[in-house]
Amino acid sequence: MLLRLLCFLVLMSLFSSCSAIPRLDRPREGSADEEVVQTKGDVEELCGIAPNGAKIVGGNEAVPGEFPWMAGIFLTNRGYPRLFCGGSLIDHQHILTAAHCVNQTYHRPQPADLVVRLNEFDISSKDDGLDTLHVNVEKIFVHPLWNEKEFKDDLAILRLEQEVDFDPNLVPVCLPRGDETFTSKSATVSGWGVTKEGGRASSTLRKASVQIEANEDCLLKYDGSVPFQILESNLCASNPPRDACQNDSGGPLVVQGDDERWTQVGIVSWGIGCGDRRFPGVYARISSYIDWIDSITQTTN
Ligand code: ARG
Question: What's the pTM?
Fold first, then answer.
């Protein structure tokens, strides 16, 4: 109930600009031995490059291919596939998402219940011009400290059944490798979530430009209003009335670096309402979890 209350409203708007971006090379090759090394190598080499970067300023629908790491996570166990969360491609075989997308008392899908779509734009159309990939999930890794009652450590990784090859529309997002806080930076969140609180999910991918704020400010805004805390491992961002909302959970909040590459700094986690002036969107702060993410992506267990 509380979760419901927390989950609502408005998504997506706005600008983003980027231009002349280097071309992507073709998929890697090499023996199985080289593969591990090369896989990592080409992730770092190619991550965060969005060749079809935004051309619309002030729009709120994404350009097809604008977020080539964006993943739609679908539940298939009740007949027709239903998008319920977002995620991001972080290497050839792993999708970063929110723990609450896959691990709650009354919602605990098995890998076989999930399908991930990559290179997707309009989830209700087969002719959106993109060659959408539908990939099954082999294994779900939930952060060991994820706690549903406190909404703490809200992240999970889906290991895909197949490795995917990168191409200009299929690019992993970069992960932050330093301790930058990103406070005051402008960031972009993307997803197929509802476009107004309590409304319907969007069939096309949308984006919103939001500003990252200091944790202390966010903490003051939420003080006493929720049983959850704003921890160091959270990141808050807002730009009312633009915000992530229901079904955007698990999706990436990205920041563009001076080199034009995009780094994921947050995972959509929770908020009171959506786009409410008083309450920023709350994200899992990726830089707090790099070691855990690496521990999953670098093993085959
Ligand atoms: N909990 C929501 C979901 O499951 C996401 C909420 C994000 N809310 C916000 N105001 N930013 O999809």
Answer: 0.86
